[in-house]
């Protein structure tokens, strides 16, 4: 005996109300026009979850792009950030036994949260920029903090003249500080 269609929300509500009003399982099944098993399972779901609405899962055509293919799709998008949906679909179809349309790829990208993406733009690195950047880094390579010894100090730094702060203070200043604290 095959499965009949799902119970409507109204029928599930009828089952719950009839059982709460004290009708038997058989009376409720006759009233709604379903099997006794449907009455029992619907009422049990309502008692456990508080809601009788539960649609059957797995209804409909299976997806062409399953979880494994979605991971592969995400990798393709990540590896080539400027690829269009058509290019991604073409790459995906090259190794896929089932052909996937651009529309399906686009829906999968939207479902994965990759819609309207922009590629992250890095700085333009041409030989002139590279040479200038290396020259700048080479000039500053020996900079260290003043506490580390004889190395050059950073120019225009408020910490450039910390040497005087580490010297012992004058005794008169120490006496003034001691009196101010009393």
From TrEMBL:
Residues 136-182 are annotated as: Disordered. One of its GO terms (biological process) is DNA transposition. Pfam families: HTH_Tnp_Tc3_2. It comes from the Eukaryota. Residues 71-140 form the Transposase Tc1-like domain. GO terms for molecular function: DNA binding. This is Transposase Tc1-like domain-containing protein. It comes from Denticeps clupeoides.
């Amino acid at each position: 005996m095959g499965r009949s269609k799902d119970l409507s929300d109204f029928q599930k509500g009828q089952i719950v109300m009839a059982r709460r009003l004290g009708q038997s399982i058989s009376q409720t099944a006759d009233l709604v026009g379903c099997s006794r098993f449907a009455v029992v399972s619907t009422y049990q779901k309502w008692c456990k979850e508080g809601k009788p609405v539960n649609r059957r899962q797995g209804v409909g055509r299976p997806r062409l792009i399953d979880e494994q293919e979605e991971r592969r799709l995400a990798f393709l998008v990540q590896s080539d950030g400027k690829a269009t949906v058509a290019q991604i679909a073409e790459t995906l179809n090259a190794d896929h036994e089932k052909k996937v349309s651009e529309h399906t790829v686009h829906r999968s990208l939207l479902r994965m949260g990759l819609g309207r993406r922009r590629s992250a733009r890095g700085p333009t690195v041409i030989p002139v920029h590279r040479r200038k950047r290396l020259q700048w880094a080479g000039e500053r390579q020996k900079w260290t903090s003043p506490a580390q010894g004889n190395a050059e100090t950073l120019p225009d730094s408020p910490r450039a003249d910390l040497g005087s702060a580490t010297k012992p203070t004058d005794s008169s200043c120490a006496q003034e500080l001691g009196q101010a604290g009393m």
